[in-house]
Amino acid sequence: MKRRNSRRKHILLYLLAAVMVMLTALVPPAPHMVSAAPAGKAASPPAAHSGSVTRQEAEQKQPPRVAVIIDDFGNDMRGTEEMFKLPVKITVAVMPFMRSSEQDARRAHELGFDVLVHLPMEPRQGKPEWLGPGAVLTSMNDAEVRRRVEAALDNVPYAIGINNHMGSKVTGDERVMGIVLAVCKERGLFFVDSHTNYRSVAGRMARELGMPPVENHIFLDDVHSASHVIKQMKLVQERAMSQKFCVTIGHVGIQGKETAAGIRSGIAGMKDKVQFVGISDLVREEWKWNARLTLP
Question: Which residues, other chains included, contact 259 with Cβ-Cβ below 8 Å and sequence gap of 6+?
Fold first, then answer.
């Protein structure tokens, strides 16, 4: 009797074990549990892909930019060679109808520099002979203004824009500036206001036409000495670092070598703090200007 009961007990245990195995196979495993974040702390979101950079982050990483425009090329002026040999990218503003206008424009282009037409424009004060040939005057009718602007552009190869030579009277005249800007827009160019007139209408009118309102911020050689230019270059750096970019203008001419020497010295102290760019680089990046040009 005891042997029979023992046999039954073994059979029941065997059946119970078989049932447990079957239940284990049928029930799905519990999901993997993520440990909770410590009290007072939210769980961290998934890490972003290490290679992805947002546009805002890219702009924040971009160094401050400086566009150095050198005016008055085209007449083989003093300092021309020194400017062409500066160790950074510059923008060469060439006066039209002068003895080396085409030569200087082509050389600048070959060096990878931007070229502007340095268009003579009537000032409020100053000697008429300072203007040079092909000047735009407020006394001209609309057709003559247009002819002068188009002729100047045709005379300077590789020009991507215009800036004013003198011009304190013209840049304050809505009628004349409207024609100048219209020609620029038709040709895919932009206008750089040298700011010889602080009541200039050029920037406002450019914005109204959907063009970049580019303007000079600092003259480098308003006092003609290398030491002054060095001081101005420090102001350029400060302005670029606080406002992201700076447009600055210097000149070849009587004190062209001194200006070039001051710029070169200034560059030495700025090269690790700012990026020197052509004016077209700045206009494209800052104002998203991508006009199509037809160059020779």
Answer: 79, 220, 221, 224, 226, 229, 250, 251, 252
Provide the residue type at 78 as one letter: R
pLDDT in tens, 28-43: 444 433 333 333 334 4
- 271: enclosing H helix or E strand: none
Determine phi and psi for 244, rounding to 5 degrees: 80, -25
- The secondary structure of residue 262, as a DSSP letter, is H
Residues 6+ apart with CB under 8 A from 257: 78, 79, 82
- In sequence order, which ranges of 27-117 are alpha helices (DSSP H)? 55-61, 80-84, 101-110
- Token digits of residue 261: 């020497």
CA atoms of 248 and 86, how far apart (whole Å)? 15
Report helix, strand or coil for 55: helix
Residues 6+ apart with CB under 8 A from 225: 255, 258, 262
Rounded to two decimals, what is the model's pTM?
0.80
Rounded CA gap, 159 and 81, in Å? Answer: 20
Residue 186's H or E segment, with its range, is helix 174-186
214-215 and 190-193: which strand pairing?
Answer: parallel
Question: Across-strand partners of 71?
Answer: 251
Q: How many Å separate Cα 22 from the centre of its chain?
A: 73
Q: What pLDDT is attached to residue 36?
A: 36
Q: Return d(Cα 93, Cα 15) in angstroms, integer.
A: 100
Return d(Cα 157, Cα 132) in angstroms, integer. 18
Q: Which percentage of the chain shows pLDDT scores above 70?
A: 79
Which tokens belong to 145? 């203004």
Segment (H or E) for 149: helix 142-155
Question: What pLDDT sits at residue 73?
Answer: 98
The four Cα atoms 12, 17, 21, 27 give a dihedral, to 10 degrees, of: 80
Are residues 227 and 220 in contact, defined by beta-carbon separation less than 8 angstroms?
no
